[in-house]
Amino acid sequence: MLDRPRDKTRSDEVSLSALQFLFAEMVSYCQERVSGIADFERLLGSMGRHVGIRLLILITHRTQTASNPKRPQRETRLLKTLLWLHTAFWKSAFGFQADSLERSTESGRSDEYMISTNKPLFASGISVPKDMSQLSIEAFTAGIVEGALEGLGFKSP
């Protein structure tokens, strides 16, 4: 793996069972180290954030070298960045485009956006215990998006 050029592995995929096994171990690791659901989701999100930062570096490198290696561009407006995350980033990271990008309709939350997908990314291989029924395993996915946004210069409050 280390002998191959970084850009030549673009079409290589990891098997779903290997990814689910790795994620199940991450969930087990988190479960042993936290006491509440909020801490559990925070730790999963933190792990996802680190993955998101690294994915962003890889995806932007591949995009820039393929499209215009001499003049790389980075979007600085939030909506265009979210559209890029919703389409190109999501497809590169997860193999498919997210289903929708929605703006919050609640009063006082007009600056909140939601990227939705009907196909759960990581929750499909994990069974949540009954005492943790409120746990959202997809906090890891949210962390990936948070890390990508942070890497693009958009800090969360």
Automatic annotation (TrEMBL):
Q: Which GO terms describe its cellular component?
A: endoplasmic reticulum; TRAPPI protein complex; TRAPPII protein complex; TRAPPIII protein complex
Main location per UniProt?
Answer: endoplasmic reticulum
Give a single Pfam family match: TRAPP
- InterPro entries annotated for this entry? NO_sig/Golgi_transp_ligand-bd (IPR024096), TRAPP-I_su5 (IPR016696), TRAPP_component (IPR007194)
Keywords in UniProt for this one? Endoplasmic reticulum, ER-Golgi transport, Golgi apparatus, Transport
- CDD domains in UniProt: TRAPPC5_Trs31
User: Where in the cell?
Assistant: Endoplasmic reticulum; Golgi apparatus, cis-Golgi network
The protein's superkingdom reads: Eukaryota
Q: Name one GO biological process term.
A: endoplasmic reticulum to Golgi vesicle-mediated transport
Recorded hits in PANTHER family, A to Z, give: 41-2 PROTEIN ANTIGEN-RELATED, TRAFFICKING PROTEIN PARTICLE COMPLEX SUBUNIT 5
The UniProt similarity line reads: Belongs to the TRAPP small subunits family. BET3 subfamily.
Query: What subunit structure does UniProt give?
Result: Part of the multisubunit TRAPP (transport protein particle) complex.
Name of the protein in its database record:
Trafficking protein particle complex subunit
Q: Which organism is it from?
A: Malassezia nana
Tell me what gene encodes this: trs31
